[in-house]
Amino acid sequence: MNHTSDRRTFAIISHPDAGKTTLTEKLLYFGGAIHLAGEVKARGQNRRARSDWMKIEQQRGISVTSSVMTFEKDGLTFNLLDTPGHEDFSEDTYRTLTAVDSAVMVIDAARGIEAQTRKLFEVCRLRSVPIITFVNKVDREGRPPFELLDEIADMLQLDVCPMSWPVGMGSDFEGVYDLHANTLSQPEGPSREFMGRAIPFDGMDDPKLAATITSAGLATLKDESELAMGGYASFDVEAYRAGDLTPVYFGSALKDFGVAELIAALGQHAPGPRPQPAEPAAVTPERPDVTGFIFKVQANMDPNHRDRIAFMRLCSGTFKRGMKLTPTGHGKPIAIHSPILFFAQNRELADEAFPGDIIGIPNHGTLRVGDTMSERADVRFTGLPNFAPEILRRVALKDPTKTKQLRKALDDMAEEGVTQVFYPEIGSNLIIGVVGQLQLEVLLSRLDAEYKVDAGLEMAPYDTARWVSAEDPADLKAFMDLNRSSMAKDRDANPVYMAKTAWDVGYVSDRYPKVKFAATRER
Ligand code: G4P
């Protein structure tokens, strides 16, 4: 059977507090993957109780790890990739977004587009990832729908197409009207939730509708929806899939409004596995042999086992358990005997997986973020960059006998993409680099909890790092020889220029026009 069109691999992007956790839980609940709302949070707490290093997650109330949840509905398999929500984790999040075919953008109806939503949106735009918008919390007082739609259109430069419309918000909330199916989801009972029975009408002039909602509600709904249908783009699946138009659903994750519609929209409109950028040519899901790439590595998911899981996005072929795949650059094929598919409640052993699926591969450090895995070793996926760190620190070890453990820990975390590590050409102090402040806290907490290494961080004599290269190796060598005190190697032994100030980067790049100074390095 051809499974290339029945996978929906997506992520939810949002600003903290917009309702991502609640919506995730409801999607899994409606998708039949969990049986009680509340399990996602409960699961999170269990996990926290078991795992020391997630203390930070607990303290800061943010999600540091990203996981994969799979559910099946109406003959489709949905793979939901959870992205860490905090702004400091943009690098990790970026990589997760390289592994999805579409995204759901959750916006708080009272707040509109917030900083983190916007950042994550920009990442999606880089790869033309199609976006469905969910305006959440319409059961509470929010901003007028027109204001929200215009904000999305203006700030994100996207065509917007309202698919549903809220009948009032907050204390005036009377439900959500589906503009295409002409159905109304109404709040019921003391909790004012949606109980799952959408009422069908013959359009807004149906007398039944007038008997169902208040006359004020109906008048506003008619006026607003007429304006909305005339004033915004109509739905065009091609424009959506090209990332130029976003269909907008109004709803309430907490009270179940709009959740079923969102799943249906993902099923109907969201693309299945998209071709992935690669060399020598993009890989389409129809390609018969197995290819995939590692977008995340997570160590010590279970503190009792020093295993690490590499998360692979399958891009083509039918993966079968026991199959041998070759990681790029390592040469040796490895047999994958115990792949893991991530279902909501437990890890299950995967026998087969298809393009769009995510497979967890337990390993002892062989697999790295950015690795291509393939049967024939004749392809390399591109576009998983390393970002130049914005914060550099020198690691000071309190107990000098722990040097080996420290190196191991830093290497592990560099491999996971938590931090980057640089080895200066002169001197023995390791320099670590991160994109955001919070990663430093994660680093220290994990050094202590997992590796029993007591270390502190000191200011580094550098402010920024650039990967250097040149067409003629002689030019690069000349530059490196003259700047030895500012040179370091990254974990893969690539040369890195450590600059004292950003100004220095400009200065040296003017002086050495044949040398390229890159702020990202593609793996
Ligand atoms: P996040 O993962 O995006 O950070 O958001 P999360 O789902 O944790 O939701 C943030 C807060 O917003 C939670 O309240 C949650 O209950 C609430 N919320 C989410 N969706 C809706 C909605 O549709 N309507 C309303 N009215 N509230 C919503 P909290 O008080 O911070 O957490 P909790 O103690 O209630 O769990």
TrEMBL record:
The keyword Cytoplasm applies. Residues 5-274 form the Tr-type G domain. GO terms for biological process: regulation of translational termination. CDD domains: RF3 (cd04169). GO terms for molecular function: GTP binding; GTPase activity; guanosine tetraphosphate binding; translation release factor activity, codon nonspecific; translation release factor activity, codon specific. The keyword Nucleotide-binding applies. GTP binds at residues 14-21, 82-86, 136-139. Keywords: Cytoplasm, GTP-binding, Nucleotide-binding, Protein biosynthesis. Pfam families: EF-G_D2, GTP_EFTU, RF3_C. PROSITE patterns: G_TR_1 (PS00301), G_TR_2 (PS51722). InterPro entries: EF-G-like_DII, EFG_III/V, G_TR_CS, P-loop_NTPase, PrfC, RF3_C, RF3_dom_3_sf, RF3_GTP-bd. GO terms for cellular component: cytosol. It is found in: Cytoplasm. It comes from the Bacteria. Belongs to the TRAFAC class translation factor GTPase superfamily. Classic translation factor GTPase family. PrfC subfamily. Increases the formation of ribosomal termination complexes and stimulates activities of RF-1 and RF-2. It binds guanine nucleotides and has strong preference for UGA stop codons. It may interact directly with the ribosome. The stimulation of RF-1 and RF-2 is significantly reduced by GTP and GDP, but not by GMP. HAMAP family: Rel_fac_3. This is Peptide chain release factor 3. The lineage of its organism: Bacteria, Pseudomonadati, Pseudomonadota, Alphaproteobacteria, Sphingomonadales. The gene is prfC.
